[in-house]
Protein 1
Amino acid sequence: MIMIPLVCFSHSDYGDILRVQCDYLEPYRFPKYLCFNKNIEIHPFEKVLAYDDSKKYSKRLEQSLSQIEDEYILLFHDMDIVISMDEVKISKLVESMKQRGIDRIDLKNHDGEPGIVPYRTLHYQYNVNPSIWKRSSLLDVASRFDKCYRTIEDLDVQEYCMKFSICRLAHPKPIQSAFFQVTPWFLYMHITSVGKLIPEDNNAMCEDLKKVYSDILRTYTFTRPMKRALYGYD
């Protein structure tokens, strides 16, 4: 099995969210790296890839990626809580990437025939969804642009990424997890929006994940307010 590192991008301002992520990541065998604005040890991460907090998002990412030697990584952000993951399936996806010369697989579920499907349009060639990346390709993007988190998906980035082989996943039995449909291979829960927790009720989750989210809210202490509605800024 290919031991691809799990690379979580975070910031000390999201320490309350990161605590949840840490507990959910602990059982997995894959190496775990943390992109963080402080060079401190945080369990269960084997490596902390410290970045300069004064830089914009893409340059922080570039700085962290430059500290990794692995050819492929699974990159996600602290607010995308990894509820469950099939490490064998993820390893097989990496094997497929090597065989087919794929630079990125978006791990959010998409409609279509089940399997690995190429992106055919300009829309979201690049996004911040949890993804398996060829590290050198992501480093190319991060070094090319000087963007904040809110602008890294701008049109100029999408156009630049058309040169890469970027694919998406389609699963026959997707799972509704708040904003996204996800797959059983990498089941994650995006628990914040505009810096706030998503609401406990009317959060567009399947019943099993609603219970998981309610348990998270009761187990952990958060420093941020909760949204009144899933969508919008309120």
Protein 2
Amino acid sequence: MYTLYINMNNAYKLYQVYCIEEGIFVKTHSFTDPTECPNDHPDKTIDTNQTTIIHYRPIISNTSQTLSPKKETMSSQNYQDLQCDFYFNKLIMDRITNVKVIGYINNKATSYDVRTFDVTHNTEIISDTLTNASKEVNDLGYIETSPTEDALIEFHVKVTGSGGKATIENIMVYYK
């Protein structure tokens, strides 16, 4: 058994800041405490006394990371976010090399599509159409177009077949 110690100072954090000009709270992601409002307006001053951290996403230096979706079962015929984001950090990773998913479909579905999507640059990284009805590890393949700078990565699924459902239990992201 191994114990993993995570330094939360090396974490990608979701902050809530108060933008003075607009008089509203705004969410922003950063490794460091924000110093200005992320919204596009002339006065970017924030009230630092009202800045709070909402969520930590630790950055783990390794060669792979396993993610567990918050939404496991999907039934939409349009891509839906599995809500298990991955932060690609160029400081500790050179490139994403491969993605594998543990998943399956029910008997009403004919297939399901899984895609890895770079939200920061609005780019699909890799996708595949899968047809397995029993739980399997599905290799989406070698990734040719990994991000070249920091990026927020999402994982999406859509199902083919009326009444069909796809279940994704885990996603493994490999990088070097």
Protein 3
Amino acid sequence: MEARNIDPQDVEVLPPEGKETVLLAGYKVTHVQWTAFEAFIETNCYTDACRIAGICEKTLWTWRKQPWWDAAMDEFIRRNQDRFMARLAKNSVKIADGLINVAAGKDKEDKTANARVQAAKVYAEMGDKPLINRRHDVKIQNTTINAGVLNIDKVRELGRDKILEIVSGSVAPPQEVME
């Protein structure tokens, strides 16, 4: 069965025009593999993707476990997140106005107030430097070690390399960080 044409604007992870293979994650990805990947992105169904690409499901499952598939998927997700963020940025005034209206109680009978607040929250949590940062940084909490309890404020002063040495067990924590 012949593969359907998938709009490059929808997928945005395609090999260069006219090339049979493309190098991705150190792997030469063939036209059939790209067709299967694109079909999976479009249908979100292994069976349909296999039918469109003309391959068996075992082949697709094998490809799905290869680094090129993960690299293509990561790139696809990254580009769609960028596109989503751009659309939110273009509408940031509307988002802010909606949030202000909800906070001011202007829409007392509005059943979409919660959805608008959640949309504003999503906007504030997006991007590399979000207004609301819920990303977890690696934090070491006060931990009991066989030598005692670490003073977390003093541990922070040690620096990343020294902390990694302590965590790996290659060196003991210095006495000044012990309580």
Protein 4
Amino acid sequence: MLTTFIDKKSQVTSIAKFLDIVVPDYYFTDDAIKNDMLTYHNIHHMMSVCCIAFSDLMQGPQGFVLTKSEQQILFLSCMIHDFHHKQESGNDYININNAVSYVETKLYEWFPTYSKSYSEVLKWYVKDTIKCTEFPFKHEPITRVQQIIRDCDLMMFTQIDGGIYLKGLCNEMKMYDLTGEQAVQQHFEFMKSIRWYTTMGQQLYDLYYSSSYEPQIADHWLSVCNQFNQVI
């Protein structure tokens, strides 16, 4: 049974290389554990959002066709949107401000082969995109990139290691006594309130959260519950 996050460093590094971006080495410092407990808002979450955003489903025939600069903005926003997160429930504005402040001062480090003026221009788009992930949702996603990250940020529990993410989220919310089954049930209720902005987002919701989902989807949620119940 999977009890640790799937490491997606190689995947995001490959995407970064394609986009002429270099992820700083310090970014990959593992922050999955805080106070001996699993977290949710960590580098694994951000890398997973990035991988979903650049998956064939999102970038394929039914998805968006993005320019290279839009893809760079999307990559950076996914990879940084929860950077320096407090990893606890509370005012999400603080977390968003931490990420935005990092973009303001350090984004140039991700573009060592470009002039600093290039990142100075890009950072305004990245900051606006990151703000669209603030929860409760306050900023309407207008651009294609903003719509993609909004939807992808909500897809963690459809992933193979979804139960680990769900346990991390419950830990951050101090919901320590929930079973996997109870956590999944609460998550299903929350997802009913979500507005989707992309075809992929709506399709994944219909696939994973329909009352008449296929047997393999039922197996997925059973795996989520089992993962949840086996991690700290």
